[in-house]
Amino acid sequence: MSDDPRTGSILVTPVLGIPEVRAGDDLAALIAEHSTDVRAGDVLVVSSKIVSKAEGRVVAGDDRFAAIRSETVRVVAERGPTQIVQTRHGFVMAAAGVDASNVEPGKLLLLPLDSDDSARRLRRGLTERLGVRVGVVVTDTFGRPWRLGQTDLAIGAAGVRVVDEHRGRVDAYGNELVVTAPAHADEIAGAAELVKGKSAQVPVAVVRGLAALVTDDDGPGVRALVRSAEDDMFRLGAREARREALRLPVGTGPLADVAVDADQVRRALSEVIGTPAEQGDNGRWGAVEVTGARVLKPILDALGLPSSAPALVVVHIRADGEPARTDALLGAGGLRERLVRSCAVEGLACQWLPAEIAGDAVRQVLPADAEPVGALAIGAARASAQNAR
């Protein structure tokens, strides 16, 4: 077997005979006692369940939801009773890793408080007892957002290069690698799970053939694999994203004379309007989008708006009689609020000009029988307005 993970083979061996682990047990001693032929450069892969048991992370199971809440720093998504949450470690997983399997009835297992620290302490204990340099990976089971089924991933690591950065390298054809970064700790966790299984009571495996990934120092641990909120394109579930949108600050003050991204404007309008003229309630209310410079600029000038504003949406109604007009105004008001909120999602600001101000300037873009309610100019917020929010 080669020490080069790119060219060699690996051997994964289960560690058999480890008894039921209790709070306070010396886990390193138990693993060392039952591990045979561990060599320098091996990686010991340990289920988080026995780590949690040894660390006393077992609680009464009469209120599972309370246990999940205690381990949750952020709810990512909910559907029925199922919650995907972020734990204090930064992991995004179902039920915060709270587990009722492979534990006494009426009990629940929580994840280790600091699984990287658990891996470091376990590595020190194993090194002392085995007399060789090894790596340690602590694992737990995760689902995946785009795949069915579950797999084991690393939640703690020590003495293992958890990820490699290949950006800037070239492939066999000379193409530069831009985003390639193999997550070795997760790959090791998945390989070990093939021999540990979910119900065979085999909580430890030894992976041999990856000595090139075993380091002298403990390293940064699995924390290096946790994606930051700024880099997370899927930070919230659909329902939670809608809730978050309701809390966004909206810019409805004067616009700055600053150019904005046309794609942002197009996305904001298409989410609400969809077409240049949107009609609601059988045509009783609607909106006309004005973006062409030939028509837009004279309107902006007439209203004293910055010429850099890329779009104007004119909200209008068509109604005869007071009851119908009231209903139409309510519909038009709802459309205006959706437009403002959609712009906020895209980081845009809006300035609303009621019909008393905008009516004469925008009437030319409306159907002959339409009554303007007002115009919504879209662009960038003035710095003072942003600071005030």
TrEMBL record:
Residue ranges the record marks as coiled coil: none
Keywords, in A-Z order: GTP-binding, Ligase, Magnesium, Manganese, Metal-binding, Nucleotide-binding, Potassium
Domain of life: Bacteria
Domain Coenzyme F420:L-glutamate ligase-like: 18-61, 66-209
EC number(s) recorded for this UniProt protein: 6.3.2.31, 6.3.2.34
MF GO annotations: coenzyme F420-0:L-glutamate ligase activity; coenzyme F420-1:gamma-L-glutamate ligase activity; GTP binding; metal ion binding
Stored Pfam families: F420_ligase (PF01996)
InterPro entries referenced in this protein's UniProt entry, alphabetically: F420-0_g-glutamyl_ligase, F420-0_gamma-glut_ligase-dom
Designated name of the protein: Coenzyme F420-0:L-glutamate ligase / coenzyme F420-1:gamma-L-glutamate ligase
Organism field: Actinopolymorpha cephalotaxi
